[in-house]
UniProtKB/TrEMBL annotation:
PANTHER family: 50S RIBOSOMAL PROTEIN L21, LARGE RIBOSOMAL SUBUNIT PROTEIN BL21M. This is Large ribosomal subunit protein bL21m. The lineage of its organism: Eukaryota, Metazoa, Ecdysozoa, Arthropoda, Hexapoda. Keywords: Ribonucleoprotein, Ribosomal protein. GO terms for cellular component: mitochondrial large ribosomal subunit. HAMAP family: Ribosomal_bL21. It holds the Pfam family Ribosomal_L21p. GO terms for biological process: translation. It comes from the Eukaryota. Belongs to the bacterial ribosomal protein bL21 family. InterPro entries: bL21-like, bL21-like_sf, Ribosomal_bL21. The keyword Ribosomal protein applies. One of its GO terms (molecular function) is structural constituent of ribosome.
């Protein structure tokens, strides 16, 4: 049964319906056979996504447009994704985040969060591989409060063994306020030489 249905799919009339849209794309016809070669992927001005559509990488004009926004202050409200104590947080200016577990900083300490995975504004995003270049994004924060969480219950039971234990505990928490997020320098044009720059622009 399955082989009969599969043999119908292999007819030239049906296969033509699948291959016809591919012939209309000039980029697919012009792409060399070695497009999956890593060296070709670095120098290729086109990027392939999961949907099969061709998406151009950031060119010089895009990088210049972002640099102009940063110079004039029209980038909008910046956001970032930072890694802190093994967890990732999406933050923006004025946010308060809670870090679970023991953490040495005390109340009032000012911090600079270095592990920035992603940063962006209203029109652009900078994506790290896996982290952005050191010093590109400056995230300032302050320890607001160190406290304990609400009372949690840890209950264990083994049936038919007359075993039942119940424990209550509170874990340490640190509340952090994000003071500012700033992009400290201009972006380098990564379209021409992606291996020479730590900035990757999408």
């Amino acid at each position: 049964m399955f082989l009969k249905q599969f043999s119908r799919l292999l007819k030239p009339s049906i296969l033509g319906a699948f291959t016809e849209p591919l012939k209309r794309l000039p980029a697919l016809a012009a792409a060399p056979a070695s497009r999956w070669n890593p060296a070709f992927a670095l120098n290729n001005p086109l990027r392939w996504n999961s949907s099969g559509a061709v998406v151009p990488l950031a060119d010089k004009s895009t990088t210049e447009a972002v640099n102009k926004q940063l110079e004039t202050g029209t980038e909008g409200r910046l956001f970032a994704v930072v890694q802190l104590c093994g967890k990732q947080f999406k933050i923006t200016t004025g946010d308060i985040i809670v870090v679970e577990g023991y953490w040495p900083p005390e109340n009032g300490d000012r911090l600079r969060l270095d592990k920035v995975l992603l940063a962006g504004g209203s029109d652009f995003s900078l994506i790290g591989r896996p982290l952005l270049a050191p010093g590109l994004v400056d995230v300032q924060a302050t320890i607001v409060e160190k406290t304990l969480s609400h009372t949690r219950t840890h209950f264990r039971k083994k049936r038919r063994k007359q075993y039942m234990r119940i424990n209550f505990y509170r874990s340490q928490q640190t509340m952090i306020r994000i003071n500012s997020i700033e992009i400290t320098r201009k972006l380098a044009n990564s379209a021409g030489a992606p291996e020479a720059s730590g900035d990757r622009f999408f």
